[in-house]
User: Which sequence fits this backbone?
């Protein structure tokens, strides 16, 4: 007997009742975070509750071809892949893509058009949160402390690189943080200590994109805090705060994030309760202000009495060393329970 839900009639037409919801894990992608996305996707596949869900997967290669788990070895161009995904009639796509073309609203917009529910934030919130320049402007507007910053483009740098370097030296000082404003996993990021190192850092980071942001280096204790939506639109809750102490790296870089024992991640964080409460409130504030849904994770630095917001991740990692699952575990939630809760909040 066929059923009709709230999704579009074209999408639901001919779909029969089934005992298990069909969850498709989407991973890989064409961004520089492809490898981390594969790790996240594999962990999700290993931990989704197969008593509750029928689980399949799609890997997007670095070249943009789609590989479906039910047709191993058959690489499809996107023009063929989209109709196949539509005809699968999944109840939910679990997006495990990180970085551009996965975390920035583009894949979310595609699924919106197809009428397929998916995990995490929608198109507009995803695009806003990954854009560190504009998300910082919004968070500053609502009264949250953010690092001072200067933004410029490759054209600006070629036109007046010396003037930009002088402006950075006078306004922000060295060391400073040079980053691509639309990357994640600390890729496209450097901390030059001198003017000479700054020039090299700019050339390096501009390799990740046309626009660049330079921030004042904030010294202090790095912390992160996840947020989960409650079911049925009943609000959100902040998870326990995690304190991050890189072992060898100068900051919480790609190596420290994804290499076992490369950082000490303490959950719950060893900070005063009043500071903890403020970190959790800023995380909730960012989740709501940026329009996130399902889940998010915000990174901050505790600097004296100030708590400086750095960014909000709409699709944080789900690897063995990732921070959102650690926060959930500290709240008494298994990895499987965390995934079940995220799938339950999937929508379009």
Assistant:
């Amino acid at each position: 007997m066929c059923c009709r839900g709230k999704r579009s009639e074209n999408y639901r037409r001919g779909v029969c009742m089934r005992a298990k919801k069909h969850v498709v894990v989407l991973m890989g992608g064409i961004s520089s975070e492809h490898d981390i996305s594969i790790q996240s996707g594999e962990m999700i596949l290993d931990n989704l509750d197969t008593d509750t869900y029928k689980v399949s997967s799609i890997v997007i290669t670095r070249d943009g071809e789609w590989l479906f788990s039910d047709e191993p070895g058959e690489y499809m161009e996107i023009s063929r892949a989209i109709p196949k995904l539509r005809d699968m009639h999944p109840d939910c796509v679990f997006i495990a893509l990180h970085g551009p073309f996965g975390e920035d609203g583009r894949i979310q917009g595609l699924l919106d058009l197809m009428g397929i529910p998916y995990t995490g934030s929608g198109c507009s919130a995803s695009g806003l949160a990954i854009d560190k320049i504009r998300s910082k402007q919004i968070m500053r507007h609502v009264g949250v402390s953010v690092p001072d910053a200067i933004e410029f483009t490759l054209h600006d740098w070629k036109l007046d690189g010396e003037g930009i370097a002088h402006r950075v030296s006078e306004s922000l000082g060295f060391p400073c943080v040079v980053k691509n404003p639309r990357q994640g996993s600390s890729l496209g990021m450097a901390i030059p200590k001198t003017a000479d190192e700054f020039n090299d850092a700019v050339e390096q980071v501009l390799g990740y994109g046309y626009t660049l942001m330079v921030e004042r280096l904030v010294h202090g204790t790095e912390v992160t805090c996840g947020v989960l939506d409650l079911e049925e639109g009943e609000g959100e809750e902040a998870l326990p705060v995690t304190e991050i102490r890189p072992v060898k790296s100068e900051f919480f870089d790609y190596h420290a994030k994804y290499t076992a024992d490369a950082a000490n991640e303490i959950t719950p964080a060893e900070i005063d309760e009043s500071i903890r409460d403020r970190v959790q409130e800023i995380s909730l504030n960012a989740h709501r202000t940026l329009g996130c849904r399902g889940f998010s994770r915000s990174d901050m630095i505790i600097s004296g009495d100030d708590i400086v917001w750095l960014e909000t991740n709409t699709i944080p990692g789900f690897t063995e060393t990732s921070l959102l699952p650690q926060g959930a575990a500290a709240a008494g939630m298994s990895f499987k329970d965390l995934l079940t809760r995220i799938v339950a909040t999937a929508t379009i």
